[in-house]
Amino acid sequence: MLVRVVLSGVVAVSTLSCSVNILENFADKNTNEAYYADAVALLNDGDYSGALAKIALMTGVYPAHRKVVALKAAAHAGICGLTFIPFVQAMGDLGSTRLLPFLVSQFKNATGARIDACRTAEDLIESIGAIAERTTDENLLLALISFAKIGNVLSYYTDAGQDGTADAGVNPCLNARGSRPSAAVAGDFYESDLRELGTGITLALNNIDAISSSVSLGSDSLSDINGVCATLASINAAYDFCSITDPSAFTANHLKGIMSLIKEDSSVGLGTNCSGDISACNCP
To answer: By three-state DSSP, how is residue 190 classified?
Structure first.
């Protein structure tokens, strides 16, 4: 299985920070370029809030530069809990592990703030342009962020103990919660966050498809989502949410489709209260 990551402008930035260190005593530290270099170095060190603080100091049109937008997205992704290289390596070792249990295990200690940071990071990459207008690096970054968002939402609503495993008995078909809980719970989604989980799935699928000729990420579990979507459509065409990337566009039936994908345990789902494929384990 091949996992090839370039992300030259966002992740592979350690060489830039080294060159900055050599020149830092001779350069003006109060320029946009200096702030950018500082933000890159802080991102490399895992100081994501510090990187955002440096970006906030930039002036004029510089913050709108493509590389700055991508860097800002990467910083928000770090706050969301995404550590790029370890996560990609873990995806490469996914094997036959189902995708959603894997994502719960990768994003323990989920919080509402992390979910929001994931959404902000997604929005920033999408602001660069449509999929065809973005680079492979940018689309790969968005796919990884979307996986992180899925993992955080699932962790927050199915793993009350935050031990990396969804709690047995959780019913994924419930979304009657009137507001986001203050801490992780075992079941009953807040609808707004369920919608974000749905777009996490669809954005990940779309962006992986866009980069498939140059990047292979994950395992058969990723392609299995497309199969689940086809089965959903055969159960009830109204359940098929898989082409929708706007969270506000999901209907009540689309939400049932999203929850059904979580419910099954044959392809990608958690299987916390049902064992079987999505034709047997779905949300009526």
So the answer is: strand
Distances (CA, A) of 267 to 92, 101, 224: 17, 11, 6
Domain extent, residue 251, equals: 14-263
pLDDT at 217: 72
Predicted local confidence at residue 202, as pLDDT: 95
Q: Is residue 279 part of a domain?
A: no
Assess contact for 122 and 196: CB atoms under 8 A: no
197 neighbors 154 (Cβ within 8 angstroms): yes
Tens of pLDDT, residue by residue over 34-75, are 999 999 999 999 999 999 999 999 999 999 999 999 999 999
Asked whether the beta carbons of 166 and 118 are under 8 A apart, the reply is: no
Coil, helix or strand at residue 186: coil
Average pLDDT over the chain reads 89
In a domain? residue 8: no
Residue 71 near residue 44, CB atoms below 8 Å: no
Within a domain: 5? no
Q: What is the phi-psi region of residue 218: left when phi exceeds 0, alpha when psi lies from -120 to 50, beta otherwise?
A: left
Question: Taking a C-beta distance cutoff of 8 angstroms, is the pair 221, 94 a contact?
Answer: yes
Pick left, alpha or beta for residue 24 (phi over 0 → left; psi -120 to 50 → alpha; otherwise beta): alpha
Establish if 136 belongs to a structural domain: yes
Once rounded to an integer, what is the mean pLDDT over residues 252-277?
96
Please state the domain count of the chain: 1
pLDDT tens figures, 195-207:
999 999 999 999 9
